[in-house]
Design a protein that fits this description.
The protein contains 3 helices and no strands. It has helices at residues 14-50, 54-62, 70-90.
Length: 91
């Protein structure tokens, strides 16, 4: 992906702008990867504990087949965050 930035002010050097934008994009990408790994870890722990994939869990949870325990809401939120991350990566 190529980005271009045009400034009307000559007080900014092209290298400085490029470095700042590059740093910001790299930081955002690293932050997203870290969040993804965090939520994936949560899902894996619940999958192991309940011997159920996150996909099957969501199906059962949404159909009301599971209880209203807090950990189920935590698992659901973590799986939803993973799904949103993956949807955004596909765009």
């Amino acid at each position: 992906m190529n980005l271009s930035v045009r400034t009307k002010s000559s007080r900014y050097e092209k290298g400085n702008i490029r470095d700042a934008v590059s740093f910001a994009l790299n930081s955002a990408a690293a932050n997203a990867r870290q969040r993804f790994e965090h939520y994936a870890g949560i899902c894996k722990r619940f999958e192991k504990k309940h011997k159920l994939t996150s996909v099957k869990f969501v199906e059962q949870f949404e159909m009301g087949k599971l209880g209203d325990e807090q950990e189920f809401f935590d698992w659901y939120a973590a799986k939803r965050a993973l799904d949103l991350y993956q949807e955004n990566q596909e765009k």
